[in-house]
Specification:
The chain is mainly β. Helix content is about 5%, strand content about 45%. It has helices at about 30-35, 40-55, and strands at about 1-5, 10, 20, 25-30, 65-70, 85, 95-105, 110-130, 135-140, 145-150, 165-170, 185, 190, 195-200, 205-215, 215-220, 220-225, 235-240, 245. The radius of gyration is 30 Å and the shape is elongated.
Length: about 250
């Protein structure tokens, strides 16, 4: 027979206690309660689920808080004479909130129960010190660092001002907002019309020549350049504030 509690799910191999419908959820109280038999500790069940997540979650290098949701106090399970086992359903992955199964396979009344476990993982992230207008080149004076639960940051987060050239805001950013990758773009370090050194290599042979940038470019971006000697337009990757690597 199986049942659900308001705070968790459980199934047992056998129970004789009556079940009733509570707020649309089947609620069963196990025979352990009515017979006076010892029941399993809720804290032991929660600790088993929390320890399972603690050793497997993807934020091992960060400060974390792991909390299993409390079971309904009316949930009664036979005391397990052996070690409790935690597990995930097939195909499940550990996320901010994960449903963990805990089971007892020893004794005369095997059982299993499911309960949600939440992970909070804290890291220092960049937040706006004041409102930032679109198109602003973001400097150290525009940001501060704050500790945040990154598991709740679905759009990611930034922890530095980036490589040379930094970032430029794509949109308005409110004071105190966590800076995310979709809010910014890399600032240009090469400007249209600027003279740049064009570098080309083919195996052991390297050639350098002067050119003119035909577009603005951020570090690592692809731009069009003109070879001053031949007048040809070529494509290359910005490698510094005055050089472009040709394909």
């Amino acid at each position: 027979m199986s049942g659900l509690t308001a705070m968790g799910q459980y199934t047992t191999m056998k129970t004789t206690a009556p079940c009733k419908l509570l707020l649309g959820i089947a609620l069963c109280v196990f025979s352990a309660a009515s017979s006076g038999a010892p029941s399993e500790s809720h804290s032991r069940i929660a600790a088993t689920a929390e320890n399972y997540i603690a050793s497997r979650h993807p934020w091992q290098q960060l400060s974390t808080i792991i909390t299993a949701q409390k079971l309904d106090p009316r949930t009664k399970l036979s005391s397990c004479p052996g070690k409790l086992q935690a597990f995930l359903s097939s195909g499940a992955k550990i996320k901010r909130r994960t449903t963990v199964g805990v089971r007892c396979t020893a004794g005369a009344k095997p059982w299993k129960i499911y309960l949600p476990v939440t992970v909070e993982a804290y890291a220092k992230v960049m937040v706006a010190r004041h409102p930032i207008a679109p198109g602003t080149t973001i400097s150290a004076g525009d940001v501060s660092w704050a500790k945040r639960d990154i598991t709740s940051l679905g759009y990611g987060y930034l922890q530095s001002l980036g490589d040379k050239g930094g970032y430029q805001s794509r949109q308005s950013i409110a004071q105190g907002a966590v800076l995310t990758p979709n809010m910014v773009s890399a600032s240009s370090i090469v400007n249209k019309g600027q003279r740049v050194q064009l570098n080309s290599s083919d195996g052991p042979v390297s050639v350098s020549m002067m050119g003119i940038a035909m577009q603005d470019g951020a570090l690592g971006s692809r731009i069009l350049v003109k070879n001053l000697n031949s007048g040809k337009q070529l494509e290359g990757v910005v490698t510094s504030e005055n050089s472009v690597a040709l394909n």
